[in-house]
Design brief:
- The chain is an alpha/beta fold and 277 residues long.
- The protein has 9 helices and 8 strands.
- The chain starts with a helix and ends with a helix.
Length: 277
Amino acid sequence: MISRYLMALGLTGLLACSGTAQDEAPATEQQATSLIPDAILGQAPPPSGEHVRYVPGDDVTVGYLAVPEGEGPFPTVILIHEWNGLSDRVRQVADALADEDYVALAADLYKGRTGANRDENVALMTEAREDAHGMIANLDAAQHFLRERPDVTGKVGVMGWCFGGGVALSYGLGGEQHDATAIFYGSLVEDPEVLRSMHHPVYGTFAENDRGIPPDQVERFAAALDAIGIENDIHVYDHVGHGFWLRVDEDRETREEPARDAWQRLKAFLGRTLGDS
């Protein structure tokens, strides 16, 4: 189990992860949240959830919890940050998922730390990858934390971006059973025999101009999933590069349309896999 997890934690996506990973100042133009979350447009208000310590006996790992209004029960989603650590942009996406009636927990794989530049980000990412057992335990603890809540259905999805996308896939192969994996331009596994450890549907959003995870690699990944009968929704968006979805505000003219489509696909995927039907 751990060996499969380690295979998916290779440095395949390291070059791609070198794109901008820091929070940007909010934009001023307004956009309907029903079509695309304000979080990825740089227009969301400050995070409104709560900081939580979800790993037993660990006082330095601090995640972020966003809870829908109402009594539930709600399905749950675990979010895995990019290479720079748990940032407000990821917390704001958790808030957006809460608005869609998911209990959302943004995990912290860096023990409360974040990077401010490429060297710091690489150091944090490398340290985390070298402790694959620790990452599995961290995300297993996140599942336990969510499943213990009285307002949840028991269904859990896991999603992440870049470093976090690769970890989400790895966790689907080597972590405790859950119901869905969503990958945004994360490192991939192409071996069908390794992917047989996945027992739930997979969502993937990728970019035509991603040097680290090129479209032909994505095609081989999707073909491997198809070959072993794993339901999947994998799409490569034209004219955009790595990291486009989480920071639409950096190039709104190019990124907004594919980001909106990816959000609608994600909502439909989570509804199918985590909903009542």
